[in-house]
Design brief:
Elements (H helix, E strand, L loop, with lengths): L1 H20 L15 E7 L5 H17 L4 E5 L8 E6 L3 H10 L5 E4 L4 E5 L6 H15 L22 H5 L5 H8 L10
Parallel strand pairs: 1-2, 1-3, 3-5
Antiparallel strand pairs: 4-5
Helix pairs in contact: 1-2, 2-4
Length: about 190
């Protein structure tokens, strides 16, 4: 129920704030042909219905926050161009990330395999899953960590993200501008 509520809140907020995306200057005409960048994705069958709804809510936040210029299409088949969202357990690699980051890793994006791996046993609730997914999707579309403002999903630690942003999920101006500044002609995972 909480996951569906979170997804509904994300949908309402992103719907109502999508007009803000139009305030951002349109992508320059010397970029890719067409205005919409479509990312094909898969969601691991190990995610339950509620978690899958939260993942889709995070994808919708990015899509609506960019005025629809970033779109996501679910696929049943994994390919080398598909963004794969998987649930994993704690393993040696995750433990090495914990040591390197001096924190507990909740999820990570691997550009070599174009995979977002979520350590589900460490996700305390649907809200945290939603926040983590928005952050990792940011990495998947090419964004790096942003330490200049707390009003971003791209802080290195989810605990450093503004409480206001967590309570009212939306795509803040800093993340929209960072997306516009990317070379969006590249395929996801390049």
């Amino acid at each position: 129920m909480k996951a569906i509520l979170f997804a509904l809140i994300l949908a309402i907020i992103t719907c109502c704030t999508s007009s803000l995306a139009n305030a951002v200057p349109p992508m320059s005409t010397n970029r890719c042909s067409g205005d919409v960048r479509t990312v094909t994705y898969t969601v691991d069958v190990n995610f339950d219905e509620h978690s899958t709804a939260v993942v889709k809510g995070a994808l919708a936040l990015w899509s609506n926050g960019t005025g629809g210029r970033l779109d996501f299409a679910q696929s049943a088949h994994v390919t080398n161009k598909t963004l794969d969202i998987v649930s994993i357990g704690v393993n040696e690699f995750v433990q090495s990330l914990d040591k390197h980051n001096e924190a507990t890793t909740l999820a990570f994006y691997d550009p070599s395999s174009n995979t977002i791996s979520v350590i589900s046993s460490r996700i305390s609730n649907e809200y945290v899953l939603g926040w983590v997914m928005v952050h990792e999707i940011g990495h998947a579309i090419g964004l790096q960590h942003n330490s200049r403002t707390r009003m971003t999903w791209m802080r290195a630690s989810i605990s450093d993200v503004s409480v206001d942003l967590k309570l009212s999920p939306r795509l803040p101006e800093s993340d929209r501008v960072a997306y516009w500044n990317l070379d969006t002609c590249k395929e996801i995972g390049q």
